[in-house]
Amino acid sequence: MHNKKAQFGKQIMIFPFVFLLIIIALGISAGVVIYFGTGYDFRALDASLLSYKIEKCVLENSDLNKLKDNFYETCRLNKESLEKNKFFFKVCRDLNAIDCANTEDDKNILVSLGSNFQPCFFEGVKENKAYAKCHNLDLLKDGAQISIITGSNQQIRRIST
Amino acid sequence: MRKKGIQEIVFKMNKKASIGEQIMDNVIYLLLAVIFLAGMYLFVSSQENGAAAWEEFYAKEISKVMNLAKPGDEIVLDVHKGTVIAKRNKVDMRSETFDFNNERKEVCVKFNRGKKSCYSYFNDVNVSSWKVELAVPDFNALIIKIAEEKQNAQ
Known about the structure:
The complex is a heterodimer. By secondary structure, chain A is an alpha+beta fold. Chain A has helices spanning 2-12, 14-36, 43-60, 64-69, 71-74, 79-84, 97-102, and strands spanning 87-93, 109-113, 133-141, 144-152, 157-160. Chain B has four helices and six strands; from the N terminus they run ααβαβββββα. Chain B has a three-stranded antiparallel β-sheet, with no helix packed on it. A three-stranded antiparallel β-sheet of chain B has the order 2-3-4, with helices on one face. The chains are: A alpha+beta, B alpha+beta. The A-B interface holds A 7, 10, 14, 17-18, 21, 24-25, 28-29, 32, 35-37, 39-40, 42, 45-46, 49-50, 53, 72-73, 76-78, 80-82, 84-85, 87, 154, 156-161 and B 21, 25, 28-29, 32-33, 36, 39-40, 43-44, 47, 50, 52-53, 56-57, 59-60, 63-64, 67-68, 104-106, 108, 110, 113-125.
């Protein structure tokens, strides 16, 4: 009976040991993260690059209906890559960017990929890293209003070789 | 007399058992410590020279260039800092540091052994060839050739 109690005491000593290891690991990780920085957030730039490419494409093509049918080929955008890497965008006509984010009307939507565009307009999430980074643009083309909302949540992939 | 003898034997056996237990305890602690040290070593060594941070930087900057590239372009990028880190970490500067995947539309950068960092671009262009040229004229350069329109369609 006495021995069993002692054994339990010995076994329970593993917890302070593991706790100590966790504290050391956290200390080293914090040191490394502070020294090397917290990564290079490129999502805002990705979103504005996508917006720039779409804007250029919309302005260069006079027939928007034709563009709608053949959007990815005409604008030279790779749909698979956009889908896989958590990009999203929506292009609307006759609406501003905020209304474009909320509309589901096919009459106004030229082309769209992904969903949930509303957080792009939330002030509270702009500094929140968990949310995708967005870029919104309103432009005029032949007197018609065009709005473009783009966003990216692409993360770097670390692969073992 | 006989009872005393049995007690001695039991005591000796207990002693042996407790030595075995102690060794087992120490072995478990040692194993945990070794696993921990190996993990921390791998983590710190992967961050050595800031290789992972520089991989991320180059992968993202190259993806930006790829997003703005047009068919037929030839792009020359200064990758001197990256190649110096790769050399220090014994990664082959010419063949291992940069890699392009046309199917996935992805660029991968490797400046350290064991892992590489990959980032995707959305521009629908293909890379027909790329190479790392050393000292052109005073820095190491990554030369990327974007495929022509016809090659892209293939």
